[in-house]
Amino acid sequence: MRKRIGIVKENLERAEKENEIVVTQLTEIKSRLDNRKTSWKVCFLFFLFCLLVIFLLNGHVVFKILFFVLTLTVFWVMTFSEGQGTSLVERNQEKIKENMENIKTLQEEFQQIQERERNSIYHEIIKGKGATYYQKNLSAVFLSLQDEDWEPYGGYTKSEVRKEIREIGGEEYKYMPVYTNDVKLVCEPTNSHDPNAVQIFVCDKLVGYIPKRLAIKISAWVGSPDFFSYTCRAELDGGEYIGWDYGNNKIFTSEKLVKVVLDLNIVRIK
């Protein structure tokens, strides 16, 4: 819980700072735009005055055409310049609106976490058990939660990934870790191996169990909804990856089981 509240607080502060920067930029753009409008108006009036003098001194048709063409040109430049400035202002206003919505969401989450923390009686980061047996469900949920614009290896080709790993080592996963609050814990008293067993459902799919050493107390809380409630956030990670074999000094491609890690918080209601 404290880790999560720290992350939310950090994101909130970052969003507020970013919004301040955008607001400052917008103010500067508006100021420059106003100054530009004033400058163009002065230049335009001076230009018209000069052309009018020439026109009055010599009313030849060539000067009339020149007067008309140049007037249109200056007017077009003014309009184009103003349009660019207006477009920039609109983009910044949209960015501010987006930031404000993000800040509001983070503030609400921050307040909710603070409220839960005040009433929390138990908080634990739990690795789900049974990944081998429920790999099919885990993989299905894992893939369904990937972003719509998701690309393998973050949009890099395998050759680019191999090149980077060859230079710096480490591992690069094909899929991004995913997170969801769609988690249900269900007691299973009829379980022949452990009457205190607690099933983990993510997106309505059984993906594993709470470890036995924790299930005794968690089942008591989960099984008493009139007195206790819980919030749970699941992280799923794993799948295909490219890594560096330090022993044989070469690149390899392998696959890890998709696993689930829960951020569980128990709250006393009564």
TrEMBL record:
InterPro entries: HIRAN. The keyword Coiled coil applies. Residues 89-116 form a coiled coil. Keywords: Coiled coil, Hydrolase, Membrane, Metal-binding, Transmembrane, Transmembrane helix. It comes from the Bacteria. The chain crosses the membrane at residues 39-57. This is HIRAN domain protein. Residues 180-221 form the HIRAN domain. GO terms for molecular function: hydrolase activity, acting on acid anhydrides, in phosphorus-containing anhydrides; nucleic acid binding; zinc ion binding. The keyword Coiled coil applies.
